[in-house]
Amino acid sequence: MKLKLDSTVELLNGVEMPRLGLGVWRAQDGQETENAVSVALKAGYRSIDTASMYQNEQGVGRAIRASGIPREQVFVTTKVWNNEQGYDSTLRAFSESLDRLEMEYADLYLVHWPVVGKYKETYRALEEMYDQGRVRAIGVSNFNIHHLEDLMGTCRIKPMVNQVELHPLHTQKKLFAFCRKEGIQLESWRPLMQGRLDLPLIQELAAKYGKTAAQIVLRWHLQLGIVTIPKSVREARILENADLFDFELEPEDMVRIDGLNQNQRFGADPDHIDF
User: Which partner for 79 in 89, 95, 110, 262 could form a disulfide, CB atoms 3.0-4.6 Å apart?
Assistant: First the structure.
């Protein structure tokens, strides 16, 4: 299948989720967030990933409305933060997120981290909101295999997405295989390794394909079938990150990139969170 900027993956419930989106982590609410989202939407992106913790949901909502693009054509993800978890508090947090976005529904709502003793009740609230039609798809973020197995032992609705740190230095092959077997769509945050793009192999492939190092890494994600949401507030970088659809990595180069894995995280380990 030839990938395009508007290519989607089908989630467990039939909802179509764009393969490439814009992440707005650390983007300042207001002009910075609005400019980034506006540039992305104008370039053809149709997925925006935010969270209550990012404190920029208002800017995301304003930019989407200002774009003139019909709401149903933009896939909006947000997340419940750790101090909001629990059944009742998650219901409140979701309503507050919708208020800040000024939207009647979200396309995807995620449990941001697996807070011990809380994430099952939190997810139960997500199921309730899904039943009410206030969110089109639900899932989790930063869940390891044992978290998913524990959750699926009691939940009514299987998570449709698991958003995790995944990149060539942390390929998460066991988690990837587990999610694929269960029909859970894996999504990558921090796909560009916090800027660690000076790896000799990535530089070699950038020269071979006439692309940037970032484009090589993002194309690797897409060809694996992983949804990815590179974050940027710079127009040139947002456009560069979307210019992935006029080339294809050869199978042997995909394997070579896989071989860079060092199980190296740049973010927190989900088994050891204290925030």
Answer: 110
